[in-house]
Write a structure and sequence with these properties.
With about 190 residues, this protein is of the alpha+beta class. The protein contains 4 helices and 9 strands. It binds zinc ion.
Length: about 190
């Protein structure tokens, strides 16, 4: 495939306006939607993420991808139709690199979406997959994991020791967000 403008898309960070814009439904799954998904998968894998939403590429369309245990799930116009249970677990986000915190999520969700051919699908997910789906659908609704995280659990991952132990540093939400805003490139 020849180069196109999708190749120029990169993952935007906290402070980019698209992360706070509610994404609009795609409705028709065209080749350009499939091409967008292809690029999202590339970027997600390169960044070793479990999921990515189109807002994170600066495109507020209701498109997301999730990949857990080598199972790839594209999500087009996804909607949570039911959620049950609650479980707190750790999350991070490719748009807030190195920041982690505990977020309560449903233990099971049922999601309605469209597949790559525009056909309506329904999926039921538990545990980690349910968490990832909620995180990505939150992005499409302009929400970030830090909006829901227990603030006392927030920390920076600074690196790892030689033994592979994580080196962490606690932070407040306010301080963490300042770091991202200060690091933002100036934009037109
Ligand atoms: Zn995220």
């Amino acid at each position: 495939m020849s180069r196109d403008h999708y190749d120029d898309l990169t993952i935007v960070r906290y402070g980019h306006p698209a992360l706070r814009e509610k994404a609009v439904p795609v409705r028709r799954v065209t080749d350009s939607v499939r091409r967008l998904i292809e690029r999202m998968v590339e970027l997600m894998r390169a960044a070793r993420g479990l999921g990515l939403a189109a807002n994170q590429l600066g495109i507020p369309q209701r498109v997301a991808v999730v990949e857990i245990d080598d199972r790839f799930t594209p999500l087009i116009d996804p909607e949570i139709v039911s959620a049950t249970g609650s479980e707190t677990g750790e999350e991070g986000c490719l748009s807030l690199p190195r920041l982690y915190g505990n977020v309560p999520r449903p233990t099971r969700v049922v999601v309605r979406a469209r597949d790559l051919f525009g056909k309506r699908i329904k999926l039921t997910a538990d545990g980690m997959m349910a968490r990832a789906l909620c995180h990505e659908i939150d992005h499409l609704n302009a929400k970030l994991f830090v909006d829901r995280a227990d603030e006392s659990s927030l920390y920076w991952l600074m690196g790892h020791t030689e033994e592979g132990e994580p080196i962490t540093q606690q932070t407040t939400l306010e301080d963490a967000l300042k770091v991202f805003v200060a690091a933002r490139p100036s934009e037109k």
